[in-house]
Every structure is written in C-alpha cells, then in structure tokens.
Amino acid sequence: MTKIQVYDPALCCSTGICHVDVDQEKVTFAADVDWLKSQGGQIERFNLAQQPMAFAENPVVKSSLGRSGAEALPLILVDGEMALAGRYPHRTELAKWAKISPPATDTKQGSGCCSGNRSC
Amino acid sequence: MMKFLDQLPNFLFFTGKGGVGKTSLACAASVQLADAGKHVLLVSTDPASNVGQVFGIAIGNKITPFESVPRLSGLEIDPQAAAQIYRDKIVGPVRGVLPENVVKGIEEQLSGACTTEIAAFDEFTALLADAAILRDYDHVIFDTAPTGHTIRLLQLPGAWSGFLDEGKGDASCLGPLAGLEKQREQYESAVDALSDPNRTRLILVTRAQASSLREANRTHEELSAIGLKQQYLVVNGVLGEANTKGDALALAVWRREQAALAAMPDALRTLPIDHVSLKSFNLVGLPALRQLLAEGGVVPQGAVVTLPKLQAPDLATLVDSLVGEGHGLFMLMGKGGVGKTTIAAAVAVELASRGYPVHLTTSDPAAHLAETLEGSLDNLTVSRIEPHVETERYRQHIDSHEHGTPEAIYSHEHSPL
Questions:
Q1: Are the Cβ atoms of A13 and B114 closer than 8 angstroms?
Q2: Is the N or the C terminus of chain A less surrounded, counting Cβ atoms within 10 Å?
Q3: What is the ipTM of this complex?
Q4: Contact between B146 and B47 (Cβ < 8 Å)
Q5: In the prediction, which pLDDT does B170 show?
C-alpha cells in the first residue's frame, strides 16, 4: 500500500489547531487526514516541534531543510519520494497518491458529501 | 490525632483556596509522619512553592532529603524547569544536525504554555505511576497549587485517558499520538492511583469563611465527579472562643467564623472533618510545624513579631488616580487568597458609583465575583471568563469549520475586558 508521510512545520500540537487563531488550511488538512484514514489510506504525520529526529533521520527531508530551511515545510513524501513541498495537499491529491477513489464531491455542497459519519 | 492522618493511604493531596494553609498543613503532616517513623516524600506542584522556605532549605526540581528531619524528603515540581528539560530532550539530539534557524524555530515553538503544562504533567504522573517511589516512601504528600490549577492538574489524567481511548481529537496540546501511546500505561496507572481510595486521599483545606467553604465545596464536587472519592475536610485557623475576651475585633471574627461553619454546604458535612485552631505564631521552622497539629501546645520561642508600618494609599485615593486616565484597563495581581477579587470588586463599585461604566471580569475558574457582588449597580457589568466554556466554544467553532463555514473563524468574539 502507498505510504504518505507528512513533515509538518513546528506546531504546538500534532495538527496545529490548538491555538486560538486557527489556520483554516490546517483545520482542513486535519479533516482530510481523518478522511483518508477512514478510507483505509496510510498516512503519517511528523511535527518538527515534537519529533525533530524524524526530520534529521530522513535524508530527503534533511537535505530539503538544509537547502530551503523551515519554509520548505510541510513536506509530503509518497513512498519515500518528495511529492509536495511548501503547502498541504488537497483531498483529491491525497486520494490519487493513496490510489483510492476520490472524494464524491470536492467543491459541491449538499447531502451525500460525507462518506462516513464524520465531517467532509 | 487528626482524622485526616488516620489510616493514611500512599498518596495525599492538599487542596484549597489560596492562603488557607495548604503548605503549612502539608509540611506539618509530613513532619509528623516522618517523626512517627514513616518515610515521606513531600511534593510541591505550586510554581511559587515555598516549602523550602518553610523548612529553611533549598529543595528544587529533584528529590532532596531534609537533613533536619530523618525519613523526610522534598521535591518541588517547577513547571518552567520541567519545560526546559523537555525542550532540551527534544532539541538536543538535532542541534548541529538540522540547520540552525530550523532548530531556533523548534525552540521558539516549545516556549509556550502548552509545553510547560505537558512537562509539569509528565513529572506529576511519573510520581503516581512509578512503583519505585512506593518502595522508597510510605507516603507521598502533594502540597498542590491554588485550586484552579489543582483542578486542571488533577483532571488531566482522566481527560488524557479518555482522549487516548477515543483515539480522536488531535486538537489539543497533547503532543503527537505516537508519543502518547508509549506513555499510555503511565497515564493509566496514574488515573488508577488517583481514583483508588485505598491509595489516594484528598484533603480539602478551608478557613472558617463562607467564600473559602464554597470553594472547598466546589472542589469537592468537581473532584468527586472525576472519581476522587476519598475526601477529608480540614478547617484551618479556627479562632477559639477563649481568645475573644475583651477584644471586640476578635469577637466579631469569632462570630463570623461560627456563622460560616453553621452555614457550611451540606455535601461538606458528610466528610470527615478536622478543626485546626488558629495559632499565635508564624508557621516557619520545625518547632512551629510540630505545634500546628498539636492542640493546646506551647508557643515556640521567638515567635512574637513587630509589624512595620506600611505607607499605602487608601482605596479612594487609588481610585482618584485611576479615573484621571478616563479609560483604562486595570489588572489586580497577587498571591492566592490575599484579596485580589475583593479589591477588584471594591474598585469597580467605587468607579461605577462615580458614574463610570465598568466591566469587571475574571479568568480564575474558582472566582467568586458573582458571590462578592450579589445585587448589581448601574454602570457595572460582571462577567467571568470560564476556561471550560471557552474551550467548548472553541471546539464547536472548529467543528463548524470542518462542516464548511470558513468565515466563522473571522467572527471570533473576543471577550470584552
């Protein structure tokens, strides 16, 4: 199965949404990660502020940090290869990498949007 | 013998409103147990711990034997120091491996309140869960921080375990789940220890004052609800009737205390209760501590002190200086129990009665502003920032996001001050 690894910038918590001023991108991505897991996708997140060793031990991530600094984060590796840098992927991208069927609707509103009992 | 020291389990927690005498009682109980041949570890979780001061020694963030009291050791959990150790543990291995500005970014991120809470909590659960501690000590006595902090500290283990069981809600300061899983056993055994009456006893310390008793009752209910069932009540510093002769002030204090005790909340009455009489000496040093729990003891020598004369403005003068500015944000600070809320209310009432619109607010979860200001004035608004309520509002806020109302975040309400 395809393995997606997300190397987050230094966040207070594992999703970065425990602050009072929430970054909408992080909230959306946290929900997308939940969605992917609910679809059986394999995705792992590493927080620079809590697991910096994971960054230092991965040659791809380490060299990218050395080249571009923390601005390169988040870094997304798919099966160990760099897939995206500097922004979080959308749900459709996650689905494509994980080789699972894309979300029913990505932009359209309405019922049937959610596959499970969780949020879209 | 005091009831709260009878048939004592391993863990003993003292809690209560600031200034009621938790530290003095915890120290006195520790000395008494050590004198009786028990091995005792006295732990302070108060960021402004003064256990060391009471014994006249330096303790710090590691277990330190008290030379003056055989079998007694002390430990001060300093959240700031614990956070520094946590930071070093995380950052140390990558220093010189990752680029310097990246390392700096990590350090910056780990300088917040989250880190401090996590680090202090780790230390706290380690003591409850470490079997080795109970090989070395018969009793571990916690002199906890003022109540609001204590409640959060004690509620955390339950909250964490629930969090782990449900495997959801990364939106908290709990760190990555991967890291938590490793410590799961430790948190579980900490929760077990806390809710086991054979291992943990909670001692609610109060004064014979209405606000202090209400506070004790609130803590009693909150901690009962999270499973700390074995609770004792100690009414500290009770003025004896014999001390009121020919002293109008003492008599008034005595009457007020007796009235407060008579009106004690019913839930507290069902607990085992001890009364500790008001002492005429300062509770610093071993001779004084050994007298605290002994009834009818002698006054230790050198206990009489002369108070210096203070030069401080009266309330009206203080308010005069405040109104000069027209508008203003006024904050009152001080150790728990000194009267911040009372003075804040007095200042607010004075300002309001002079015709200024005043908003009086507190973020102390254990605040008694509403009680202090029963019946309101024109111009005066009283509110309370409830950490629990704010957290819930925030949570719903996040939920509404996930359901596709991104605009909501920008209408976030800031509580008026």
A1: yes
A2: N
A3: 0.72
A4: no
A5: 42
Tell me the chain B residues in contact with residue A45 when contact means C-beta distances shorter than 8 Å: 176
* Angle in degrees, CA B217, B218, B222, rounded to 5: 115
For residue A11, list chain B residues with Cβ-Cβ distance below 8 A. 109
Q: Which residues of A touch B94 (CB under 8 A)?
A: 52-53, 55-56
* Mean pLDDT over the full length of chain A: 79
Instruction: Name the nearest CA neighbour of B158 among B193, B132, B134.
Output: B193
Token pair for B136 = 């070395």
Contacts of A10 (CB under 8 A, 6+ apart): A47, A48, A49, A70, B105, B106, B108, B109, B110
Q: What is the 3-state secondary structure (H, E, C) of chain B?
A: CCHHHCCCCCEEEEECCCCCCHHHHHHHHHHHHHHCCCCEEEEECCCCCCHHHHHCCCCCCCCEECCCCCCEEEEECCHHHHHHHHHHHHHHHHECCECHHHHHHHHHHCCCHHHHHHHHHHHHHHHHHCHHHHHHCCEEEEECCCHHHHHHHHHHHHHHHHHHHHCCCCCCCCCCHHHHHHHHHHHHHHHHHHHCCCCEEEEEEEECCHHHHHHHHHHHHHHHHCCCCCEEEEEEEECCHHHHCCCHHHHHHHHHHHHHHHCCCHHHHCCCEEEEECCCCCCCCHHHHHHHCCCCCCCCCCCCCCCCCCCCCCHHHHHHHHHCCCCCCCCCCCCCCCCHHHHHHHHHHHHHHCCCCEEEEECCCCCCHHHHCCCCCCCEEEEECCHHHHHHHHHHHHHHHHCCCHHHHHHCCCCCC
pLDDT tens digits for A20-49? Answer: 556 678 878 888 888 898 888 899 988 888
Among chain B, residues having any CB pair with chain A shorter than 8 Å are 90-91, 93-94, 97-99, 101-103, 105-106, 108-110, 112, 114, 170-179, 394, 397-399, 401-404, 406, 409, 412
| Nearest chain A alpha carbon to B105 | A10
Inter-chain residue contact B109 with A27, CB threshold 8 Å = no
Q: By three-state DSSP, how is residue A85 classified? A: strand
